[in-house]
Amino acid sequence: MRSSARRFIYALLVVLTPAASTAQTTSTLLGVVRDASGGVLPGASITVKHLATNAVRTVVTEGDGNFLIPFLAVGEYEVTGELSGFQTAVRRISLALDRRVRVDLVLQGTPQR
User: Fold this and answer.
1) Ordered DSSP codes for 31-56
2) Which tens digits make up the pLDDT trace of 12-30?
């Protein structure tokens, strides 16, 4: 009987350990970048700076103007959107544990040709 209980506990630990190790400890930032008329802006640079650590990550918007930055540590961030010919947009946000936060940016100006 004692051996069966040990095997059960061992099996339970084996099953639960991977679930605990994959628990979400970060957050995701997503959004779309548009111009003042509402048109999407592909190729815009999105930079996020974690204000407590100064860690920086940069991505480029897709063809539909969308961006996705997963695995960000919780905390305060400065989000910057840039594209040649447009004014830079800057926003401050706070990321909490295991959240998907949407930050849509509007860049003022017109592209230079």
Assistant:
1) EEEEETTS-B-TT-EEEEEETTT--E
2) 555 555 544 445 689 999 9
Q: What is the CATH number of the domain that holds 73?
A: 2.60.40.10
- The number of folded domains in the chain is 1
Q: What's the whole-model pTM score?
A: 0.76
Domain assignment of residue 71, given as a range:
24-107
Residue 14 placed within a domain: no
First to last CA, the chain: 80
Burial class (CB within 10 angstroms; exposed 0-12, middle 13-18, buried 19+) of 17? exposed
Task: Determine, yes or no, domain membership for 65.
Answer: yes
Asked if residues 49 and 81 have their Cβ atoms less than 8 Å apart, the reply is no
